[in-house]
Amino acid sequence: MVTVTRSLAWVPASGTGLEETTVTIDASGCVAVGHVTATDPHAFDVYYRVEIDELWRTRYVCVSETVTSRCIEMRSAGEGRWTSDDGRLLRQLDAAIDVDISATPFSNTLPVRRLGIGVGESADIVTAYVDVPAMTVTADPQRYTRLLSDVYRYQSLDSDFRRDIVVDEQGFVLEYPGLFSRVPA
Q1: Closest alpha carbon to 152 in 114, 118, 107
Q2: Does the N-terminal peptide bond of residue 41 adopt cis geometry, omega within 30 degrees of 0?
Q3: How far apart are the C-alpha atoms of 83 and 77, rounded to whole Å?
Q4: Is-contact 171 2, C-beta < 8 A?
Q5: Which end of the chain is flanked by fewer CB atoms within 10 Å, N or C?
Q6: Are the C-beta atoms of residues 47 and 133 closer than 8 Å to each other?
Q7: Could you give the count of Cα atoms lying within 13 Å of 158 in the half-sphere of its Cβ?
Q8: What is the pLDDT of residues 22-37, one digit of tens each?
Q9: Distance (Å, rounded) from C-alpha 73 to C-alpha 71?
């Protein structure tokens, strides 16, 4: 497989921030490196790196918030067991295959690509949810339903939040209503 590199950019619905991400995909998986800035409703400046294996399972996550100098770094074998940067087992994340970083719609690409569900099918998952700017990590149950070839319904299973997300042919978010829109990189 050839190495493919994509530059992606999103703006939040508030219009007061920007994300720029570079995604590199090859036969061994994917690496995404992004920078997100925002001022509303909370100011933050975050860099992240997410490494995904060839099955689109999250293997490594580093989220660094520069305003407060807080950092989250964790690893997974890809089967729902996470460890912190100092090797502690993060039992609260058991069963989480994907990471969901609240500041970026890139996170939604992970289950879209990994699950490979057909139109009309649904899948329930658990994610390692990284709340930015709080810089906390919790398990978050979610459901993805493929409504059309390019539309997925995201549902939080522990709240009433849901959105119909439009993706491109590679599963990268184009429109996340009320939260993010992709713009030219």
Answers
A1: 118
A2: yes
A3: 9
A4: no
A5: N
A6: no
A7: 8
A8: 999 999 999 999 999 9
A9: 6
How far apart CA 15 and CA 34 sit, in angstroms, is 18
pLDDT per residue over 143-169, tens digit each? Answer: 999 999 999 999 999 999 999 999 999
What are the distances in angstroms from CA 155 to CA 122, 129, 159, 181?
Answer: 10, 14, 8, 19
3-state secondary structure of 161: coil
Cβ-Cβ contacts under 8 Å for 34 (sequence gap 6 or more): 19, 20, 21, 22, 47, 48, 49, 104, 106
Q: What is the C-alpha separation between 86 and 101, in angstroms, rounded?
A: 21
Is 47:64 a contact under the CB 8 Å cutoff? yes
Written as six digits, the tokens of 50 are 């997410």
Question: Nearest CA to 78 among 101, 54, 62?
Answer: 54
pLDDT at 15: 85
- Provide the b/e sequence for 99-133 (b: ≥16 CB within 10 Å): bbbbbbbbbbbbbbbbbeeeeeeeeebbbbbbbbb
Structural tokens at position 88: 């502690």
Average confidence score pLDDT of the chain:
95
- Rounded CA-CA distance 26/28 in Å is 6
